[in-house]
Amino acid sequence: MSARPSVIVVGAGISGLSAAHRLQAMGCTTRVLESSSRTGGRMSSRRHQGFTINRAANILPTSYRAVADLVDELGMGQQIRAVPGVLAVPRGGRLHRLRPAGRRLVSDALTTGLLSGRAKAGLVRMAADAVRLRSSLSYANLGRAAGFDTMTAAEYCDRHLSSEAYTYLVDPIVRALFTTDADRVSIVDFFFAAVNFVGAGFWQYGGGTGFVTDALASALDVKTGVEVTEIVEEGDRVVVSC
Questions:
Q1: CA torsion, points 205, 81, 71, 226, in degrees to nearest 10?
Q2: CATH number of the domain where residue 15 is located
Q3: Which of 80, 89, 101, 223 pairs with 9 at a CA distance of 20 to 30 A?
Q4: Burial label, 40 (beta-carbon count in 10 A; 0-12, 13-18, 19+)
Q5: Domain Amine oxidase, which positions (predicted)?
Q6: pLDDT digits (tens, 9 = 90+) for 56-69
């Protein structure tokens, strides 16, 4: 009987842990090396004064089926449930709410007092572009949309939308999801978020997004505080230096 393949995975973020999980399920002996003192990377959480704080990722959209499937596979499907999302944008001293999913988003966008009729008319172009790009906005390979990566979200608004749509719709979405301004985000990033995040519902979860990476790490051989300095191929093996 041949020996089980031995694999080292560098990095204990969601990508590294998921890869190690799959390799282990295929029969490989896996070890995950992480330079920091904790696992999870950008999909991790911490407790502070009674509150759970996500270090980076906050939103789990229902359109990202890979995460939901992984949660089910880990036996934690009961810890998440789909809930309708609501976007609230302030204007004129009140909050204007939009339900960000399918026909409800279209209905709310047409009837909301957030935008004038002229600004709403300009959104037809944005909706058409979103449909055109949709098949290229892949979670697995965003490079498929490289041909559309020709301007920032702010430049797109300058060319095709009103300043009103930029101020009260595009820029708030960008700041909420990317924590930066629309002049620093590619139009591809904006449409990816608009189609896959804003145009979907959300998973409700407890305990922070780190519940996924914590579960993965608990079933794997993970070494934290180990910095990989070099990886060299030597014939039919790979030497990893730490």
A1: -10
A2: 3.50.50.60
A3: 80
A4: buried
A5: 14-242
A6: 878 788 878 888 89
